Description:
- By secondary structure, the chain is of the alpha+beta class.
- It has six helices and ten strands; from the N terminus they run E-E-E-H-H-E-E-E-E-H-E-E-H-H-H-E.
- Strands 1-10-9-6-7 form a five-stranded antiparallel β-sheet. It has a five-stranded antiparallel β-sheet with strand order 2-3-4-5-8, covered by helices on one side.
- The longest helix has 16 residues, at 46-61.
Amino acid sequence: MRASLVTSEARPGADEDAAGVLGDVAVLLDGAGIPQRFRAGCHHSVAWFSHTLAAHLLARATDPALSLRESLAAAIAEVRALHEHECDLEAGSPSATVVAVRRAGEQLEHLVLCDSSLLLHGRDGTVRRLTDDRVDHLVIPGDAGGPAGGPGTERASRSGGAPRTADEIEALRNAPGGFWLARHEPEAAEEALIGSVPLAELEAVHLVSDGVTRAVDLLGTHTASTLSRALLSAPGEVITQLRAAERDLPEAMRPRKIHDDATALTLRW
Length: 269
């Protein structure tokens, strides 16, 4: 397996995306940039949470006896144990989206939780995008391209309907009928989308944060297919063009934060 990584911080020194490879496992997490009042029970930063959970998930997922869901649940429990003695997690804690893949024999297993994406680039040239889009079906005012740093409280809905308040959205985070992501509840792992695909069918896969898929969902400069091909040939140029397109957005179309952390981890065999 060959891996390449491209990442661009929205703010220098504050990258809330985390990605890595260990053996046959690769993960990407995007820390959720929600207002401080919704994570007031924890003094740790979103970046600390996403990077720490990524490390634990990589270690756990290398155990073939554990499924990817079991690996994520164990990693969440381990990170919770690191700070629950000093933080009131039930009063609000950091969270993150998760994408993970693992080679298992001739199959590539995958897990997706919340709105980061996995792009499966087939040897026949087709590209399939896997995203847990439950958050996109909520009605949230203010951010037509999704929030910087993950599923926060300002996001446009693809389903129509009356806007919800930030507090109403927070009540739907990791709750039945709402949306799920990695926080301090190990049971969130059971909500992750999972599957597998024969490695023989794949040319490459990309684990991408929603800062990268803005090119599709917000900016319209790419489709999933053209984005995947561009990440294979010129990933640095993808980021350069993304940042320029964000700066050029008309004022009325700009999301809550003009720039978001953007990370793409590409694997080939």
